[in-house]
Design goal:
The protein is built from 17 helices and 16 strands. The chain is α/β, with parallel strands linked by helices and about 500 residues long. It folds into 3 domains: about 260 residues, Ammonium transporter fold (Orthogonal Bundle); about 100 residues, Beta Barrel (Elongation Factor Tu (Ef-tu), domain 3); about 120 residues, Nucleotide-binding domain of ferredoxin-NADP reductase (FNR) module (Rossmann fold, 3-Layer(aba) Sandwich). It has a 6-stranded antiparallel beta sheet with strand order 8-7-10-5-6-9, covered by helices on one side. A 6-stranded parallel beta sheet has the order 14-13-12-11-15-16, sandwiched between helices. Strands 1-2 form a two-stranded antiparallel ribbon. The radius of gyration is 25 Å and the shape is globular. The model has no long low-confidence stretch (mean pLDDT about 90). InterPro entries: FAD-bd_FR_type, FNR_nucleotide-bd, MRET, OxRdtase_FAD/NAD-bd, Riboflavin_synthase-like_b-brl.
Length: about 500
């Protein structure tokens, strides 16, 4: 069930998913308004939504022209939907003008509040701070109300699950709800009423699902994201005022954005394309030269951006595990599955000319090896899921000395799909190949595990000390879920996953 959900959600880009979910919430709000369940009229909602979308779409296009880059319509639509839900709906001409100005400020922040290609603040939060502090257009976060809460909660759950940020979102929701509830109880409200008011009338769930989770303003590591979530929750929940500045959800989020920026790669990543080479009949390696130093740890990924004409539903950004060694500052490499029919992104990638300059939004990921190099490990890779392990094993190949004791289970659809064989041989580890047919010629130290799905029994028979190893599983969601289950049945010491949902 989980792997089916991962596969289903993975077919839709995060931009499209956000548009669908936010659009559904807007539609529910319109219906609730027509039924008299909201304070705002259907006309106010329709006019405000239209103005927000037009303002962010048009201003996003203008700013893209001014900064000589390609406009991102889907990003502008998401910004417009969020502006619509954060600022109060209106049908007054003056109010609609100020709402449009709010959308323009949000678009401008993507370009003006950026350092070396990476924007710092959530655009809508930045606009809300500017418009509220100047008293031009006060934020209202009207989407936080008991009528819409069930729909907002479901939508937030979908987004956080898809982005694998459930722990971060839950951290924010629990801390913020607890503090707000205690505050209300201290003021004399009954506990249950306080809890209901905190969740139903404060934008806790909405902010967690649709704004705190924005990937471009998150730090790269999971523990850093949890810390940022806690900081935002505290700033969000405790009232304060300094002159014209008083506590608000947008200021809390901006504070978290600044902390997150301090953790991450403090610049957009620009790289020069060096060339590609075939790995298997259906996959290839792509090599890039960073134009500035890029810090990463083996097992992490980068999000590559390739603006191009005719962008399909998969979008112009894609995450790829880095396969080059962490101490090789002259090259960043990724391995890519190029099965047909291919997405517009991969077609563009496959036709890049050497010397072309491309960008990545950042490096992130927690699929990291234990700090102790003496911990015995077992890797399991499904197809192109071998990529994070290539970088991790490169340290061993280059004489750094870690990891020390590794067994790799490599599952492929055919022996011809064994990618990075030379790198694996150079690492000197034991490799167990799972494929429908036995390979004709395996390198020394490689064995054929057999056909069919990997089972706990086959793993235990091939790796007698399996129960004493930490397991790392990488590949498509179905493969990761199945093999993780079999590893648990076999009694491994610990388990880490890296599912390529939507790859």
């Amino acid at each position: 069930m989980k792997s089916r959900l991962d596969t289903l959600l993975g077919r839709v880009t995060m931009y499209r998913l956000m548009i669908v979910v936010l659009g559904a919430i807007a539609l529910v709000a319109l219906i609730a308004s027509a039924l008299g369940q909201l304070f705002y009229t259907p006309l106010q909602l329709v006019l405000s939504l239209a103005v927000a979308l037009v303002a962010t779409g048009f201003s996003g296009w203008i700013f893209a022209l001014l900064f000589r880059t390609r406009a991102h319509l889907e990003s502008s639509v998401i910004t417009g939907l969020l502006v619509f839900m954060v600022f109060l709906p209106t049908d007054a001409p003056a109010g609609l003008v100020l709402l449009a100005l709010s959308g323009v400020v949000a678009s401008a922040s993507k370009y003006l509040l950026a350092i070396r290609g990476r924007h710092i603040l959530n655009p809508v939060a930045a606009a809300a701070v500017v418009m509220t502090v100047t008293t031009l257009n006060l934020s209202g976060w009207w989407v936080a109300n008991p009528v819409l809460l069930p729909f907002v909660a479901v939508g937030a759950l979908i987004v956080l699950y898809r982005t694998r940020k459930l722990a971060m979102g839950l951290t924010f929701v629990v801390i913020a709800t607890a503090i707000v509830t205690v505050r209300l109880v201290v003021l004399g409200q009954p506990v249950l009423d306080s809890l209901s008011l905190a969740l139903g009338s404060f934008p806790i769930v909405f902010l967690a699902g649709f704004m705190l989770s924005e990937p471009l303003t998150l730090p790269p590591r999971r523990r850093q994201q949890l810390l940022v979530a806690a900081i935002v929750a505290v700033v969000f929940s405790i009232p304060y005022q300094f002159g014209p500045v008083y506590s608000s959800p947008e200021i809390a989020l901006v504070v978290g954005n600044v902390v997150a920026f301090a953790f991450g790669q403090r610049r957009g990543i620009r790289m020069r394309f060096l060339g590609s080479r075939d790995l298997t009949p259906t996959s290839a390696a792509f090599d890039f030269e960073p134009l500035q130093p890029v810090r990463f740890r083996p097992g992490q990924y980068l999000e590559l951006t390739l603006p191009h004409r005719g962008v399909d539903s998969r979008g112009s950004r894609r995450m790829f595990s880095i396969t080059s060694a962490a101490d090789d500052g002259s090259r960043l490499s990724v391995g890519v599955k190029l099965a047909q029919p291919s997405s517009s992104f991969k077609r563009t990638l496959a036709t890049l000319e050497p010397g072309a300059t491309v960008r990545a939004t950042g490096v992130a990921g927690d699929f990291l090896l234990p700090a102790d190099p003496g911990v015995p490990l077992v890797f399991a890779a499904g197809g192109i899921g071998i990529t994070p392990f290539v970088s991790q094993l490169a340290e061993r190949s280059r004489g750094v000395g870690r990891p020390v004791d590794v067994v790799l289970v490599y599952a492929v659809s055919s022996p011809e799909e064994l990618a990075y064989a030379e790198e694996l041989v150079a690492a000197g580890i034991r490799v167990l190949v799972s494929a429908p047919d036995a390979p004709d010629d395996l390198p020394p130290g490689w064995d054929y595990l057999g056909p069919g799905r990997v089972s706990a029994e086959a793993l235990a028979a091939a790796i007698p000390d399996l129960h004493g190893r930490w397991a790392y599983v990488s590949g498509p969601p179905g493969f990761v879920d199945h093999v993780a289950h079999e590893f648990r049945r076999a009694g491994v010491r610990g388990l880490h996953r890296d599912a390529f949902a939507g790859y």
